[in-house]
Design a protein that fits this description.
The protein has about 350 residues and is an all-alpha fold. It has 11 helices and 2 strands; from the N terminus they run H-H-H-E-H-H-H-E-H-H-H-H-H. Among the domains are: about 45-185, no CATH class; about 200-295, no CATH class.
Length: about 350
C-alpha cells in the first residue's frame, strides 16, 4: 500500500509498485508554473554514454563529409603557393571545431535540445529550471565538454575520471558542462505503457446509447481519458475530487442526466466508451463510402480461387433407343457411295 509523503494539503504523485526504492520516478526536480512537480526523469550515466556513442558516429560521418567536400574545393580554387602546411593545419583546426562544437550546438538549437544520439535514446537538453536550452548554454556546455570531458583536450584521463565522478555524485546526473551552463538532460519518454481506459459496465449501456455528445470536445475527452488511465497513481481524496470536477464539466455538455447513485469514474468511463464506439462506427461508414466511390483506394482481399472442376469427357454416342430421337446427330464418315460423287 503506497504511502503519501509530504504535507497533508499537498498532492503527491504515487508511482506503481515497480518504482525504485525512493518511491518515485520523477527525480529531475522540475516544477511547473502552477507549483506542480513534473513527472520527468533525469538522464543518468548509462543512457548518456549510449547517446554519446551514437553522436560520435555522427561526428565521424560529418568529418568524413567535410574532408571529401572541402579538400577538392581548396585544391581547385586556391593556387599551390597558398596551400602550405600552415594553411592545411588551419583548415584541420576549423574542421575539428565544426565537428566537436558546431555539431552539438547546431542540433540542440535546431532540434529542441536533441542531438541524433539523444533523439535515438529519448533524451533532451533543457535548462536547469525546465525551460528550453538557449544558444549560450549549448555553446558553453559544448566548449566545456570538448576541453575537459570528451574528447578531453586538457588532461584526458584525469578529466574523464572527474567527469564520471561528477555525474555519479550529482543528484540529477549532470556533468561538468551542465553545471557550468546551467542545464540538465532529461528523459522524454514515459516509464509506463499507455493503458486502455475502463470499459462501460452493462447497467449503463442503455443510458450511454441515448447520450447527446455533440458538445463534448476533444480536449475534455482527452482529459477524461488521461484521468481514467492514471487514476491508480493519484491518492485520495484528490482522485475523487478530480473525478467530480471532470464529471461536472462533462455533465454540463451532455444529456440526459446520469442515473442517480453511480460513482463519477464509472460515468466518465461510460461516456468515453460511448464516444469511442460512435467514432468507430462513423469511421467504418466513411471507409465504406470511400470504398464505394473510389474502389482503387481500398483494394479488397482476393477471394480464394476454387480449383476448376475436372473435365468430364462426354460419353461416346451410341444408338438411340427405339422411338427416341437422339439429341445430337451421329456423325458418320463420308463414303463415295453416300456422297454421290461422280468419281465413284
Amino acid at each position: 500500500m503506497p504511502t503519501r509523503v509530504g504535507p497533508a494539503d499537498t498532492p503527491t504523485r504515487v508511482g506503481p509498485a515497480d518504482t525504485p526504492a525512493g518511491g518515485r520516478w520523477a527525480d529531475a526536480g522540475l516544477i511547473s508554473g502552477e507549483a506542480v512537480e513534473l513527472d520527468v526523469r533525469a538522464a543518468r550515466l548509462g543512457s548518456r554514454v549510449l547517446a554519446l556513442l551514437i553522436d560520435v558516429v555522427g561526428q565521424l560521418l560529418c568529418a568524413a563529409l567535410l574532408a571529401l567536400t572541402l579538400t577538392p574545393v581548396v585544391l581547385i580554387l586556391l593556387p599551390d603557393p597558398v596551400v602550405d602546411r600552415a594553411f592545411t593545419g588551419a583548415l584541420e583546426t576549423l574542421g575539428l571545431v565544426l565537428v566537436l562544437v558546431g555539431y552539438p550546438v547546431a542540433w540542440e538549437r535546431l532540434n529542441h535540445g536533441r542531438t541524433p544520439g539523444k533523439l535515438a535514446v529519448g533524451l533532451r537538453v533543457v535548462s536547469a529550471d525546465g525551460g528550453p536550452v538557449e544558444l549560450r548554454q549549448s555553446l558553453t556546455r559544448a566548449l566545456v565538454g570538448v576541453a575537459v570531458e570528451w574528447p578531453g583536450l586538457v588532461l584526458p584521463l584525469l578529466s574523464w575520471v572527474a567527469g564520471v565522478t561528477v555525474m555519479l555524485t550529482d543528484p540529477r546526473g549532470r556533468r561538468l558542462g551542465d553545471l557550468v551552463a546551467g542545464t540538465m538532460v532529461v528523459h522524454t519518454r514515459t516509464t509506463q505503457g499507455w493503458r486502455p481506459a475502463p470499459r462501460i459496465i452493462p447497467p449503463l449501456a442503455g443510458w450511454a446509447a441515448t447520450l447527446d455528445l455533440t458538445r463534448l470536445d476533444d480536449a475534455l475527452a482527452l482529459a477524461v481519458r488521461q484521468y481514467l488511465t492514471r487514476a491508480g497513481q493519484i491518492v485520495e481524496p484528490y482522485r475523487s475530487r478530480l473525478a467530480r470536477e471532470l464529471w461536472c464539466e462533462v455533465a454540463a455538455v451532455t444529456a440526459p442526466k446520469s442515473p442517480p447513485g453511480v460513482p463519477e469514474p464509472l460515468l466518465l468511463a461510460a461516456v468515453l466508451a460511448e464516444r469511442n464506439r460512435r467514432g468507430t462506427l462513423r469511421l467504418r461508414r466513411n471507409r465504406a463510402l470511400t470504398a464505394t466511390l473510389w474502389p482503387d483506394l481500398h483494394p479488397t482481399t482476393p477471394a480464394a480461387v476454387e480449383p476448376p472442376a475436372p473435365a468430364v469427357e462426354p460419353p461416346a454416342p451410341g444408338p438411340a433407343p427405339a422411338g427416341v430421337r437422339p439429341a445430337v446427330p451421329v456423325l458418320r464418315s463420308a463414303s463415295p457411295e453416300d456422297s454421290g460423287s461422280p468419281l465413284s
